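Hello,

Following up on my earlier ticket. Below are the two sequence lines again, exactly as submitted.
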Amino acid sequence: MGCCCSKNKSDLSLLDDVLAEYRDVDGSLITILQKAQDIYGYLPTDVIYHIAEQIKTTPARVLGVATFYTQFRFTPVGKYLILMCDGTACHVNGSERILSAISEDLGISDGGTTEDGLFSLKTVACLGCCSLSPVMMINGETYGTLTPAKAKSILAELRAKAREE
Amino acid sequence: MKIVIGQGSCGIAAGAGKVHSALKNIIERENIDVKLGISGCIGMCFVEPIVDIYSDDGRLTRLVNVSEKDAQDIANAVKSGDLATVDRLKISDEDASFLAQQTRVALRHCGVINPEDIGEYVAADGYRALEKALKEMTPEDVIEEIKTSGLKGRGGAGFPTWFKWNAARQAEGGPKYLICNADEGDPGAFMDRAVIEGDPHNLIEGMLIAAYAIGAIEAIVYVRAEYPLAIVRLTRAIEDAKARGFIGDNIMGSGFSCRMRIKAGAGAFVCGEETALIESLQGERGMPRLKPPFPANAGYWYKPSNINNVETFANVPWILLNGGEAFAAMGTPDSKGTKVFALTGKIKRGGLVEIPMGMTLRDVIYKIGGGIRDDKEFKAVQMGGPSGGCIPKALLDTEIDYKKLGETGAIMGSGGMVVMDSSTCMVNMAKFFLEFTTKESCGKCVHCRIGTKRMNEILGRIISGDGRDGDIELLEELCYAIKDSALCGLGQTAPNPVLTTIRYFRDEYEAHIKDKKCPAKECAALLTYSIDREKCVGCGMCAKNCPVSAISGERKSPFTIDPFSCIRCGQCVHSCKFGAVTVE
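Thanks for your patience. The regenerated structure is below:
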């Protein structure tokens, strides 16, 4: 987490509607953070300070809440966010092999983003598609019964798709 | 005729969405007279995508493992009325027995009705239980009926539901709140997701009845953010129920009013604990509170609140319609009614299973689940996720019952049932769960925060071959210390996976520590790869696939593996067609 003087400049006006709706509703901090992340893709430092100021609390409290939950990110994510399931069923059915195949293919480890900004990789506890394990979710779409080769070919497809765009 | 395609998250992942749009295109293009609908998850995940064809007299033909390529054939069959042409896709009797052996109460509409159409729910006796409660029963009558049913909380702890409702009803002060815990965090469990995706109105109706019983003015559903489809369907269901006057002011003219809203969780397993969930609802870090006071007296905003799990609520409308006695007639003296399980892991037929309490684990795994995949040997079944434990083969005849499962050291839990075969290392399994609880411990209690970390380290050194004499005893000591001193359910139950694996698989721990061997051949650091000179034909495939060039040899003569360069990745085993690579 950088300090506030590193000054990343986000367009804070994008948050106006959210703040207008939730600023005075008690207990809405998590909702505000979720909506902010939907807007910016992550939680930039200046946004965190802005939220704290607007709901009349300290940046420390906002950060304390944000860092408690795994959903919140503090760095930008790639175009494709890969959520690799490491739930019990996936684990038993070999999710570790899939994870290492993806890491190897992309050259990043869990939590990382590729240099070209195309892929981010994150393990999650359970996506709830246990019968299709091992499973990963990329931008909301679920891919099941993975093998290392199948996972790599899915990444290759996405890479090709991104190149076309 | 009517075609219904199962569209739960897992069905969609298996390709149900593509089948749906392919069929839709053909039906529109060829102007076929058939209604195309969707349903939630029927729970037969092992044969998804599923297409159900209902003839006009209500007869059902179920097609399984359907792909987009089959869409034209299905459309043709429906058009001609001769379904025999798609016989190749029909479900086998054996697979159909997966469903036939179940008793569905909480899941009774899942996979049958369209979750996005309130009309279908109402047509299936929907909101009649609410009407009965509001018009014919006092809140006390409702609580009494739930008491008669013997319903216990389905989220894990198994506390009698009527008792919690009554405590909130009796609590002084207000306003009162009703909260649904849909933060299904146990890895390997997806029962609640299936209910919300497949039958959201059933949950809403159950919650409204509970809200009436305790006198709540607002009902809140706390849903995991990882369940986007569940949130979409529930949001729509709440809007539709509002439009029909089932939610809001003066419901059905009874004078009872209740609002309802959804709160999306932000990813923290500890928020499954009710007081942590309340903290999170209030926009804070989800750290548990000291009890008492219990939420019934001081919950959300320190007002009287009641929290139940999704499946608990899903049983309520059925109980009111059929009577508490009918529910209590199912099950065992200690545990009434049915329970939903997510049957997964190394099982032939995995999916959602709802059975009357009292059925044995063996019947669930072998009769309903069809036994172990690839006919390997059953080793253990993990119940209750990170809070539960592993039950070994010798106890397969244990009846599913809160008390009897508790005696094994595992728990009923919320319903995760992960089956393991001989290739699963139990020490590694224990470490998997410990890693999870270490990560998810909120940090409030020292023993949970630091104890789980130390246990994780000890398990780590055991599986990497550095286990020491006395490690098992040290683990046990830490387990009891954490159990005794943690504030909430997460810490109190976190040691269960370790304790049960030590109890039933102590020999595996000893093999890792003393002999430096992993009997299940899973722990890489304890394995030695070698090539059987008799079987090796010298094709060189293993050497070609070895990522660290640890294999060498001349073509057409046996190859050898250099144990010092080998990183034990197992690529050679997979690449050898002659089974010449042995692992010890």
